[in-house]
């Protein structure tokens, strides 16, 4: 795996500026889904990462493939928090909003802080577009934006002028207005356009005319900022590189990190990776990333449906590969019977669930973490499997390795619960050092010797059965969905044997519980008045809010679960040391319900199912209310 975007740790010389240095700036691009918003945001994120800033991003897609142009539902957005200090969230309030049409302004104006900067394409503010967005009057003229710093620009017209000499039609020229906008924003952040120009040349190397147009638009936007007489209240942002550990970094999103981690895990297990899936939002990029690893030996397979995808992955595991399949909640529902088959056959299989809003089709492009019940209990019969969850995009690589290790060590299917925010958000990621003991190989020992071979004989420590690859001499055996006789693996309808095999499958989780590390406290004291317990993508806002509360002298701790099932063996003891335990979740209290079913301890639940992660201020309010009530 090569670094697509290396991040230097050297000090950068910045031009002299009269503006004060700031710790972080939150910027949001918004426009129609066809305006190239995601590309624009991603380029700024990679430019910031290359410069050495810490970053956190939040892409926000329309739910419809092609929502009506100019409507609120058709708005696409990309939020980016660029910092000199540690950045863990995309930010509660926006410092600068780039709105390329009235609908974008209306949808995201509420999130802009007082005196924040609004960069607006006034060419898009036609009477029809203003009405379509739901404004009763032109917000540029009715005084409703008086509490903001407004920079009204003819972005579309300026783009057309910049590309006039190319001979492109006005329609084709307008497609580059996102690059003009990016050039201006790069100027605001005191950054050059060189990195983006290099990316454009690579991206459109087969279409030199398109590359030229985009580079010209990018340079024109940057030059506009340089030579124009902008209002005095429009200041530039000066953000120094973040003090990071020495090493090579790249910007990575959760889907990329998970794919790389699964490949690394298979390699450390001395296995080939097989990834079978069917396209579904927001898990599809997993397949795209694994496909790019073809030259390194990874096998990717796009099946005709969800059931075929997981059955192919099970077949790959039976054949001696590390079988992996990925989907989102609706697809996981279709895979349910096959997951039971993997549990019955006791084969190593990794199932990645990139959660989205539900139920049913729900909110396809919005994030949620409401599939915990589905992951732990969502199968017929007593069919246990381990469940783990990364906390942020940069952790997905290690969670992929952990998934491979647990699945092969214990011969079990395993589910990884990512979510739409983790999958699409980007963050700096330090390239792993494979000399680190954390990445010590764990080569799988597959059965070779026929003497004493019993396909369903279980290791007393790991509860794994032998992994006999088809074609190995004298190790013939059968697998399938019917109950197996302990030891021989023959089909058995005997009640006593079914009782025994049910217990053996449950004992796999007991063995895993002994192998996972004890739960630790992320920040704060190990006992005290309040613990905020989270899992998945609630990590960032909880981390920021809890640390701020600590600096104010409040007794609050942050505990974050990565192993959701089985739970860490010391969790009940740890949580019992706090007067109150509150769990913020992007669901209706699922982890709280799980803990209540397993522990004699009181936990409280706070839900947020709005299609976005928790905000820092929401967690801060939880802490304030809890400690205020207990004081």
Explain what this protein looks like in three dimensions.
InterPro entries: 2-oxoacid/accept_OxRdtase_asu, PFOR_II, Pyruvate:ferred/Flavod_OxRd, Pyrv/ketoisovalerate_OxRed_cat, Pyrv_Fd/Flavodoxin_OxRdtase_N, Pyrv_flavodox_OxRed_cen, THDP-binding, Transketo_C/PFOR_II. Keywords: Oxidoreductase. By secondary structure, the chain is of the alpha/beta class. It folds into four domains: 221 residues, Pyruvate-ferredoxin Oxidoreductase, domain 3 (3-Layer(aba) Sandwich), CATH 3.40.920.10; 190 residues, Thiamin diphosphate (ThDP)-binding fold, Pyr/PP domains (Rossmann fold), CATH 3.40.50.970; 71 residues, no CATH class; 100 residues, Rossmann fold (3-Layer(aba) Sandwich), CATH 3.40.50.920. The protein contains 21 helices and 19 strands. The strands form four sheets. The protein has a seven-stranded mixed sheet with strand order 9-8-10-11-13-12-17. It has a six-stranded mixed sheet with strand order 2-3-1-4-5-6, with helices on both faces. It has a four-stranded parallel sheet with strand order 16-15-18-19, with helices on both faces. β4, α2 and β5 form a beta-alpha-beta unit. The N terminus is likely disordered.
